[in-house]
Amino acid sequence: MTKVQLALTDQEATILNSYGSQFGYNLSKTIRFIISKATESFLQQGTISTFKMSPQTEAIGLKALKDHKAGKTTEIKNIDSFFDKL
């Protein structure tokens, strides 16, 4: 869990308190509600950050995919057993 400390102007606090009072919410619950709705909207849009791989990582990944398609990989059924054998 991440905690956030927030400083609001008197006007911002008054507006948020007024909005939250419609639902019977205090200031903290109102802010959590607004953040949850914004998060929900963000996820529904399918907007998730992506990061470009370095050329070296991309080359390694493409080679691994090619090896997998060619049947040169081994399925690991028990990860503990696999690492014990290394």
Features:
mainly alpha, 4 helices, 59% helix, 0% strand, 86 residues
Total DSSP E strands: 0
Which consecutive residue ranges, at least 5 long each, have pLDDT under 50?
A: none
Number of helices: 4
> Averaging pLDDT over every residue, what do you get?
91
Strand content: under 5%
What radius of gyration results from the CA coordinates? 25 Å
**H and E order:** HHHH
Shape, principal axes of CA atoms: elongated
The biggest beta sheet is recorded as:
none
Q: What count of domains describes the coordinates?
A: 2
For the termini, the CA-CA separation is 36 Å
Q: Which class of secondary structure composition applies to the elements?
A: mainly alpha
Helix content: 55-70%
Topology diagram in text:
Layout: H1 10-21, H2 27-44, H3 55-69, H4 79-84
Helix pairs in contact: 1-2
Structure in a nutshell:
The protein has helices at 10-21, 27-44, 55-69, 79-84. The protein is mostly helical and 86 residues long.
